Every structure is written in structure tokens, then in C-alpha cells.
Amino acid sequence: MLNSVKFLYRFRVLAAMVLFIPFLPSACRKEEQAVTKVAASAVNAEHRAQAASAEQDQQRVQLARIAVPTKSRYVDVHEPGAWSNPFLSFDSQWINLRVTLADANPSTIGQGGILRPSAARRRELQIRQKDLVDALIALPESAWPYGRVVAIEESPLADKKARPEIRRQIEAAIQQLNDLGVIVEEWPSR
Predict the structure, then answer these.
(1) Is residue 24 scored above 80 in pLDDT?
(2) Can you tell me the distance from the alpha carbon of 36 to that of 27, in angstroms, rounded to the nearest whole number?
(3) Band (14; pLDDT cuts 50, 70, 90)
(4) Cα–Cα distances in Å, from 132 out to 38, 88, 108, 126, 147?
């Protein structure tokens, strides 16, 4: 009886091995495919990171045409309407970019008066978060009288429920602009 139990046990082990052996190459192939996919994904991620780094370097070069900021020029500006550099106001879906263009008339006669008001040179654009750097690069040098510095605020008209999301957008923009060498002056929401 003991021999028949041993025989039966050996037979079951042998049958299991015979049934299992054809699946081994399939399992190995699946592991190889998984490893190949992970390696390809890592290579793609590395290429994307290199492309993003190259794009960031290009953006730095383009923003380098703007002078280094001079804090003494803007330290006494306390009202958003008096800010002459680009001013960013964040809403839940858009960024309002306010730019005051330079006066085309080089004469100082009548400058800022009724015939040449500075408000007439002010432009407001609505842009998306992903277009922020490109919009700042596209601005003429004359729109940066204080140098490479922008003011940022949370829109006073923003919905109170959207404030955490807006704050995350502001922090991401500050990080992005600082990485490009742009100084950010954060204004309190009014």
C-alpha cells in the first residue's frame, strides 16, 4: 500500500510538471515583455525630461534679454494700478496678464496727462497657465521698466471655493518663474 501511495504521489508530481512545463516559456516571455515596456518607458521619460530641460534653457535665454530687476524702482509701489511691469491676477481657469506698454512718444511734454494717459497704454490679456512663460517672453522689453520682475495676486473676484486650487496655481507659477530667473512680487488679494 505504501508503494502504491508513493507511486500515486510521484505520478501526480510528474503529471503536474508535464502540464506546467509548456507554460514556463510563456511566463518568461511575459516577464521579458514587462521588463522591455518598463525600460522603454524609462527611456521615453528621460527623453521628455531632456526636452523639457532644453526648452527651459531656451526660455531662460529669451528672458535674459530683459534687465536684472532694480528693487529701488518698485519698492515704493503699493497699488496694483501703479505697477508698471507685467501684473498677473490668477482666477480658477485663467490668468489675467496686465501689461503697460511704453509711451511711443519720447518727449516728456504732456506725458501721463490728458493727451497721453498711461491707462491708454495698458493691455489686459487672459491666458492659460501653460501659456504663461510664452506670453511673458513675447512681451517687448519696454513692458519691463523695473527689470525682470512680475507681480502676482489672487483675483479678488475669484470664488472662495476655488481658492485652494488658485493657490496651487500661484505656487506653481512662482516656482516656474523663479526657475527661469524672474523675480516674483506677491501681492495680497484685495
Answers:
(1) no
(2) 14
(3) low
(4) 33, 9, 33, 10, 18
